[in-house]
Amino acid sequence: MQLFQGLRAQVESYLDPAQIEQIAKAYELARDAHSGQSRSSGEPYITHPVAVAGIMASMRLDAQSIMAALMHDVIEDCGVSKESLVEQFGQQVADLVEGVSKLTQIKFGSKAEAQAENFRKMMMAMTKDIRVILIKLADRLHNMQTLGALTPQKRRRIAQETLEIYAPIANRLGMYAIRQELEELGFAALYPYRYKVLRQAVKKARGNRKEIISGISQSIERKLADAGINAKVLGREKTLFSIYEKMRTRVHSFAEVMDIYGFRIVTDNEDSCYRILGQIHNLYKPVPGRFKDYVAIPKTNGYQSLHSTLKGPHGLHIEVQIRTELMDQMAQNGVAAHWLYKSGSQPHPAESRAREWLRSVMEFQQRAGDSMEFVENIKIDLFPDEVYVFTPNGNIMELPVGATPVDFAYAIHTDVGNACVAAKVDRQLTPLSTTLRNGQTVEIITAPGARPNPTWLSFVATGKARANIRHFLKNQRREESIAMGKRLLDNALSEKNVEQFSEADREKVAHDTRHKNFDDLLADIGIGQIPAIAIAHRLDPERHVIRKQEQEEHPLTIRGTEGMLVNYARCCCPIPGDPIVGVLMAGRGIMVHMHSCPNTAEFTNQPDRIVPLQWEKDVKGEFIAELEVDVVNRRGVLALLTATIADEEANIVNLEIDPRDGSYNTIVFMVQVRGRLHLANIIRRVKAMKETNRIIRHHRVMADKQNP
């Protein structure tokens, strides 16, 4: 019980005795359930839920949240039933515990799918009760604080997941204090060497900075005191992760980032915020275009503050944030401030905005085809740098940077987005792909019977727009796509049709191309995702779509490519006799590679793009092969070499000479050959030359991906 005493001291400051007794009962259940279990560090497992509950208590969350935090792993790891939790602690606590549990009993095809499904279930639980994500964030924070006992590989995986998902969620909910700690811990675990180097550089640079920060703080304080304004001035330290991100994304040097000084000015009311802004702009000159008013127009997560960048003494840049005490607390705690400062009749801005976002999450869930797509849409929505635009009626709409009129249309209503045909920006007709800027007025023009265009997916910036477009295309056009796919496949099969193949054959092809069923495969053919000719080849490898007479006049080079554009890969230069494989390239037909070509490895996870091929028996034509020859650096050797190749009736298309040292040169020849036998004769003749040290068939392993 000694472990519980610290938590008891925390909750005694704001909860009543009856609630504390319930928390003690939850502790005892968790302690008994985790008895005998230990963490990777060797500590008893119960230390983890107690620490998570302590983080929740530091945010002054209610008794139900503290109890759920203590028991958040008992369903998953200890076999305690939800029914018993309902009986002892009530329905809400049991629902919270279930919402945080990972549901590991579900089986998935891959680890990525499992993680996506767990995340989806967590987000769905969060939409029912937002406290689920607060417990999950506290759970993740303590796990990050105790990463040291894990293997480096596991540390990196958890750190990456934290930076990609959990820190952005904390930011989306306005919980900056937790977000910053998650980012710092994630950065240290994912890039330990970079973190160490940056920490040392910052420590070294802070000597001079203290004097400059102190001088600027005193100047601001004197100015505000002279104006009779009550405020606190705080020098704001940048976190290592924020310094690293600015260096990485904005390509700034360390010196450039450290030349910017941050200050936070906290006052007692909103009116004083604007008065302080005026005094600061009198003291130092503002940088044009670098002022943001998040008080009048709060961020999507409820954050409020005035931001301004100024030219300080000696030309230094100063970033100033001006806010009230309440805004400052909300900035640190975000949606958790709902429990910290219950204001009765007035809704908490961070919570109301979080509720709006959660409603959009529910819509993603309804529209998404699977968990992976759901996570993709959520990720898009978790990184919003806002742009503010106006409706024709003067209402403000918040959209992420990079948003287009299509995103604006879907933000108004799904039906408006689906029926959108054109847009006016500041009364001028503009393309739907136009990127919107702050302050513009956007008007959407709709038409009855209009449909979303698949090309919109290439430029929309919001998860809501992407989810709705995909949902419409998948569901509204599915029957049309299947019918179109069947027609295209029947045409590709020529003398046969789809019905002539057994159900087992069709399902096998669907399975081989990683589709759930044959209808899904037909739908992908119908919308142009997969060429019909490739599936026709899989269903009927022996088909011939060119008449015999045409074959005699123009013999087919490769069997299985009938009716398709064929190109030979320049990386491996396949020639008749080589084992080959085809890769379907968008707009370029089939690219023929040698079976062993390293450049085909990236397509192993896309079996629908791989086409098995073989050479026809009587191949006619000239094919390019590359030979790499090391020869003695002697006068006349190049002429001798080219003459030898010419004697074998091969034409040299190109050659490159790479001087190795004084005694040898490496020459790469591109020669036209009729097949492997012809090439073998050339190699044998060149190898017999006394000037030849080595000859091999050359492969361009690192070929340009656009021209493999």
From TrEMBL:
GO terms for cellular component: plasma membrane. Residues 626-703 form the ACT domain. Pathway: Purine metabolism; ppGpp biosynthesis; ppGpp from GDP: step 1/1. Keywords: Hydrolase. GO terms for molecular function: GTP diphosphokinase activity; guanosine-3',5'-bis(diphosphate) 3'-diphosphatase activity. The keyword GTP-binding does not apply. Residues 45-144 form the HD domain. SUPFAM superfamilies: ACT-like (SSF55021), HD-domain/PDEase-like (SSF109604), Nucleotidyltransferase (SSF81301), TGS-like (SSF81271). Residues 385-446 form the TGS domain. Belongs to the relA/spoT family. This is guanosine-3',5'-bis(diphosphate) 3'-diphosphatase.
